[in-house]
Sequence to fold (189 residues):
Amino acid sequence: MTRVVTKLDELVSTIATGQTESGSAATEALLAKFRERYGQALRAVLFYGSCRRSQDHFSGLLDLYLIVDTYDNAYQNRWLAWGNRLLPPNVFYLECRVEQQTVRCKYAILTLKDFERGCSKWFHPYIWGRFSQPTVILQSSSERVRTALDQARATATIRLVDAVLPCLPATFTSQMLWSLGLDLSYASE
Fold:
């Protein structure tokens, strides 16, 4: 048991140190909009996907997740809060102008508790499939939230590997594992 815990701690540490990126003008503008819109309910903003990998924040649609304290605090509209609780996440579109260019994003909203559940317990890979890939925490309200996100992302990685292992041949490479895992995850949507 100690060895497993040690390996999980190593994975959490790798995730925490390996996913750093400085904010761009595009992501800073979006963060300002999110802070204005969600105020004190906003706990963290996660950035993943193709625009993060390419670091071209203006030619595509940025993929972001907003982590909030509660759905009731995040929304003025109680129906949105109820819908987000019933069938998380809610997904929205936002764009804003930055330096004579338009930055566009789609963002989903989850509580930290639902994010942690989505990375570990949800049957569907909608969350754990996404967050087993490299992700940047653009903003976090506290070190406790950041640590919880890193631990959840480590759990998502383990969940993806566990799910894809039965689909692989007896001999495989890490590239085969990740390619198949992410292909199967996104194909399930």
Q: What stands out?
A: Confidence is low (pLDDT under 50) at residues 1-5. The helical segments are 2-18, 25-38, 50-54, 71-74, 78-86, 112-120, 143-164, 174-187.
